[in-house]
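Hello,

Following up on my earlier ticket. Below are the four sequence lines again, exactly as submitted.
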Amino acid sequence: MSKEKVVLAYSGGLDTSVEIAWLKNQGYDVIACCIDVGEEKDLVEVQKKAKQVGAVGSIVIDAQQEFAEEFCLTALQAHAYYEGEYPLISALSRPLIAQKLVEVAKEYGAIAIAHGCTGKGNDQVRFETAIHALAPTIKIEDPIRDQHMSREMEIEYAKENNIPIPIKKESPYSIDENLWGRANECGILEDPWAAAPADAYERTLPLEEAPDQPDYLEITFEKGIPVALEGEQYPLHELIKKVNQLAGKHGIGRIDHVENRLIGIKSREIYEAPGAEVLLTAHKDLEDLTTTKDLAHFKPLIEQEIANTIYNGLWFTPLFKSLQAFLKESQKEVNGIVRVKLFKGNAICEGRKSANSLYDLNLATYTDADSFDQEAAAGFIKLYSLPSVVHSQVAQKNAAKKVDNLES
Amino acid sequence: MSKEKVVLAYSGGLDTSVEIAWLKNQGYDVIACCIDVGEEKDLVEVQKKAKQVGAVGSIVIDAQQEFAEEFCLTALQAHAYYEGEYPLISALSRPLIAQKLVEVAKEYGAIAIAHGCTGKGNDQVRFETAIHALAPTIKIEDPIRDQHMSREMEIEYAKENNIPIPIKKESPYSIDENLWGRANECGILEDPWAAAPADAYERTLPLEEAPDQPDYLEITFEKGIPVALEGEQYPLHELIKKVNQLAGKHGIGRIDHVENRLIGIKSREIYEAPGAEVLLTAHKDLEDLTTTKDLAHFKPLIEQEIANTIYNGLWFTPLFKSLQAFLKESQKEVNGIVRVKLFKGNAICEGRKSANSLYDLNLATYTDADSFDQEAAAGFIKLYSLPSVVHSQVAQKNAAKKVDNLES
Amino acid sequence: MSKEKVVLAYSGGLDTSVEIAWLKNQGYDVIACCIDVGEEKDLVEVQKKAKQVGAVGSIVIDAQQEFAEEFCLTALQAHAYYEGEYPLISALSRPLIAQKLVEVAKEYGAIAIAHGCTGKGNDQVRFETAIHALAPTIKIEDPIRDQHMSREMEIEYAKENNIPIPIKKESPYSIDENLWGRANECGILEDPWAAAPADAYERTLPLEEAPDQPDYLEITFEKGIPVALEGEQYPLHELIKKVNQLAGKHGIGRIDHVENRLIGIKSREIYEAPGAEVLLTAHKDLEDLTTTKDLAHFKPLIEQEIANTIYNGLWFTPLFKSLQAFLKESQKEVNGIVRVKLFKGNAICEGRKSANSLYDLNLATYTDADSFDQEAAAGFIKLYSLPSVVHSQVAQKNAAKKVDNLES
Amino acid sequence: MSKEKVVLAYSGGLDTSVEIAWLKNQGYDVIACCIDVGEEKDLVEVQKKAKQVGAVGSIVIDAQQEFAEEFCLTALQAHAYYEGEYPLISALSRPLIAQKLVEVAKEYGAIAIAHGCTGKGNDQVRFETAIHALAPTIKIEDPIRDQHMSREMEIEYAKENNIPIPIKKESPYSIDENLWGRANECGILEDPWAAAPADAYERTLPLEEAPDQPDYLEITFEKGIPVALEGEQYPLHELIKKVNQLAGKHGIGRIDHVENRLIGIKSREIYEAPGAEVLLTAHKDLEDLTTTKDLAHFKPLIEQEIANTIYNGLWFTPLFKSLQAFLKESQKEVNGIVRVKLFKGNAICEGRKSANSLYDLNLATYTDADSFDQEAAAGFIKLYSLPSVVHSQVAQKNAAKKVDNLES
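Thanks for your patience. The regenerated structure is below:
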């Protein structure tokens, strides 16, 4: 009789290798699945290893283009910074990974999906909520959390099950990375008064080592999508990689953030998002030029909700679809070019131009300082300040009455 | 018979000197009034000049401490950036200046207040709305706008009225500055594609000239108020000046912003706010450590409204008082020290500590990775994702029905 | 030589009849244009009268269906009440009327559009902003406001130009009405302490005269659109009329509102919106059943912005398009039937059902009070209250320290 | 050796009587505590019964005045309706009850607090979060949830422990009530398509039995607090009771709501809040008259957050304190009298007056339709519509370019 199948989100590390053994010991056929969202790891090796440690199937999916065009783009256009600081690196990849796992599970008739998140983080919530939303009846396995596996127990379990244990000293950090950036927690970083050590960073040079000459980059946007660098067109995932490299060289995009996790605690995180930082800055700058004031002033409410919704793992919800509909409509006139200076950790928008610029010297209405405008201003101020005048008159009348009452 | 009096907001420049003459020619006794909010000008000279060109009285008021403790502090605690970028420099001083003008007008029995704003800017609206709110029946004179005085007309009028005309070539820029920063518009800046030239800046060194060694600054906050630098206490206006100098040396706080003016047009502005940038960054960082998640997530709505309300000249309104009440209450636990690295245009919060830290390794609830927590997480996720599960089940049931209907 | 043409928004009343004469005297050929949005007036008479008083052309456009399907529907789905009370009657028709005027102007090559709004109301702003948005260079004429025409001047001008003056005593009220409701201001209503007199209302019976037997109405919605009454399908504009009649008979939908006008003053308005009230109540009730919590909790921000944007005459803006995109997406699952009891001024939703109901007794997850759920609740509460626990522990530790310091 | 003490929130019903026995059997000395927030029960009987079934102490606390002045008043001034419909009846009393339990626990040196909430409701979360916030280390006991006690088990347990079992047939409903209203769930109400039966209501007459003559009620507010009815002053809790009676007689305040519970499910609830409905309507009406537009337009964001925060059991949090600070400041000018007509389920504000009225016929600025105003309007519209004009011109220019490109 054939066994039930489980699809496991596999990374190649000790945690998920042990999970293969554990799931197998529970009676499952394990299909390991590694989704490439731009970690820049050797995924051929990862794919091989899954088989070696007992998976019946091992799949690698290149999801970089989809990740860029659907997920990173939403974050970019929404200026999505969680708590004003974190550009949603891991949070952004979780729904896509969950979606791929569900697709594989359906294709192979698996009855369960497994992941290796701990019980103190956000990702367990994001994975499970996304999987539930796409496949409400599928079983979810998380032995690391549910079996309370400590590091020591994992090593023991690995030995018993012939899983190779990494020889070299483990990094003190817990890393997650993708096209949009790199996240780092644990170790010395747990003391928020301590500065992050040099080796906490990988994608960005320290400012002290950044070049003494700036680079200038012209980024072309069409409908809010970055489509070209220096006039040359790239698919979005390639474009992001190029900007990552250039901006990383200039030490741009380091973030040190004490943040509120979804599950009720504060944590201290180190992020690197060089490309994201440059693209987010440039996109906002172009919106400043092309977006009407009322839209520009309302959009931040949508942006904050998008950032929270992504952070909270609620990508596949009717709310998020509605927010995205707003966002997409808001981008129709975000066309043009921004010139960014990259230098010593700074991404400086020095110039911007657009056929949709609402700042236009040639529009007579605001380039001539003519008498008519100035009369309009007087009328405008009269009505604009009318509520203040009325309020003030009533307040003074009431104050005067009180004085009369006291005196009489 | 004595003449009616007018109080004029006097800067010492050509505009307001011509206004003294014009107001005098209308039959007023002019009381010139210069309010010091940290421009770092020679105000003794300004005071003298007003008399020379015809004012019957000339007053200088040092409002720096009040400006810092009431106005800059509100902007700091509210993380008040207009459109996410402009830290409200000029907008911040206008209500205080209006308040002082009204106080002087009441003291001297003046029937009017005069200012020298043009008809295309925000400041005319801010001044007049603030004056109306404080003195709803006082007359407001703005000859520059209402007489449509061009530069040439002003020079002509100055000659006729024995007002000295500045000999040296005028700056191409229109500058306004105070403790919180420096604003610059006009000239070459009107082309948003052109980079701002070097001479547009004055308070900050260019990054290329910034020192190759960082400075580190420990800033102490009590109830959200910065009270000490490197452990040494300063009155707030002195503290801001100190940070301005240090941060300016490192090229921190340059802003290049295409913004939506209150009166319906977009303009391009260059700002420098070195001290503000450092203090704003540090204050947010300390809030990240000390503020509960729900407050931290709601406060940005208050912050955006405060920024807009200040920008729009509505300081003296019941709405603003209510917003300030929220803000003040929110600061009670924002105590602690932030260590900032100042380097090459960057203000980097490297460490933060507080007796009110909600990130606390000693709290057993989140330093032990115990089984209990992890079970709690599973329960949490179950209820947290329940709406997604139910929604998904209903959607799938409906999709199945549709297929049935099509097939039958 | 042919004359320049102007298109006039014509109502048949004295104001706009006088305008025909005035515009003619300015040298225009006047094309009168009456847009039917459901006022239930004799528009054949209005069309004839325009010619009689001097228009070269007179056009009546039946825009009821478009008004219902585009404008009323947006207001319905957005639960659009200005200031929580006014369901946007006049504000809703203005953009459609402006759009039709612009279309006629383009068709006939007119260089100007004229309307007859006073200088104290909202409608002048709404008309002109909408016309500017659709035809930024067309000239706008508003002689009533710009010539400061008083009632007496209008009568004088009418006599001189052979315009018939209404014989019967004028109503003391200023009325505007359409499919969505009826607005009434002026006269005795200007005293906000005085109750509105009986003759201020026309579409609704007084509660005292409403029937002693309720009516019950089952309203079917598809994607948030009311499509059937008692199971019988109607085009939306017919459906609204039917509900207006039935609800009006039961005295439903009277509104007495002191509101903040766009131009800075408060006014007191009497509205009747019987059909709107019933449909808005039923639509919200169905959303309660079919919409996920997170969407239901965020949508009010969108709703308030939609209401303000419509009230403020900003229908034809990029912001409004983005808000509508959100709204449309949010309606996809608002399918089902609501049973409303209409009785003595009350529209009471007594029952609701839907294939998209997220309240479903058959979903095991929340119909069984099983042990699993209850354990989940304990875990949920543990993490949910964790921030409160941590905050409280820190606060108590600090309080204890203060006591120690005082005692030592 | 003395036993550890537990304080139990005691209602006199079977659930909490069984809990006394269970807690006793765990080795606790039980102190029963009944907090009167206006249920109108015989609390002397309840107090006696606790002793009879085994409590070592039994306390009744009259908290009605505190409940009115602190909790109901906040809800009133915040127009706090959860999801726009539910005026927060039970949610409002939970923090006060928790506070009293904690006070009693501290007074008697108890180590635990017990309540009798089920695992599917909101109240378990509200109680425990509030208790945690006030006493983070105290133990919480909830045997009903944690021992999975079904009705049958409770009866068995009662028999074994000599607890009298209610003889008369139990109500099919689960009721909670206080000064602010009455909440009802379960039974037939679980079918959202079924109308609530007559016996689901107790505080309000059915419309069919409501009197055929209206009552008129003048309610006086000072700083947003209702202080007098018909000119006669009452303490707030007495005033609420009076309005409850009068409004209940007219069938006002019935609510039938499908709502989203805190713990992830939808439930259908029947509420009665006659007094709350009248006071909330009147308070909003007075704010319309006395509050400036900008405050009136921003306050709903605060209101929605307050409603959610109370519903979610987060009264004792820094966020809530900040929201209350805003709210309190916003009420300073909400003074005046509202005349409400109570009739057939309707609370109709027919008139309102105030010394702080911002609608004032005597203010020349908007009672004279003078030429000046109307010119101001033209200027206002010019600047107000300027962004639309510019946007439209740019859009048309771009559209024309596209046509040129296609044609060339």
